[in-house]
# Entry
Amino acid sequence: MNKYEDIINLQRPKSKKHPPMSLNNRSAQFAPFSALTGYEEKIKETARVTTPKIELTEEEKLKINNKISWLKEKEASEITITYFIEDKRKKGGRYQKITGKIKRIDEVEKQLFLMDKTKISIEKIINIESNIFEDML
# Structure
């Protein structure tokens, strides 16, 4: 006779007091445990790189303002704008380049609106490119 031959074919006992545990609850017992909740996210956030904002000189700001003034007088032409987007969680941000046509320029709020409903703060713009600026020179 083998070691467990007397009990190997018996059915599993069922409790009269407790209903059987669902499969979902049973599997939760073996889920990984993390003693430092949120630690991995903090490490990833610290490792994420942001770019510092470039401070333009007065001359560079004047060039951008002249280009914006020039755009007000022209029909909706396609332009490419490079502007800064601040990071919401840490110092710095990133630069975005977008191409489109200007819908409206709000001088009071210092906002530039594109046809695709993108809103850009004029103070965040570091470059504007277009073939219409060749006429400006």
Summary: Strands lie at 78-86, 93-106, 111-114, 119-121, 125-129. The helical segments are 23-28, 39-47, 58-73. Residues 58-134 form a domain with the SH3 type barrels. fold (CATH 2.30.30). The longest strand covers residues 93-106.
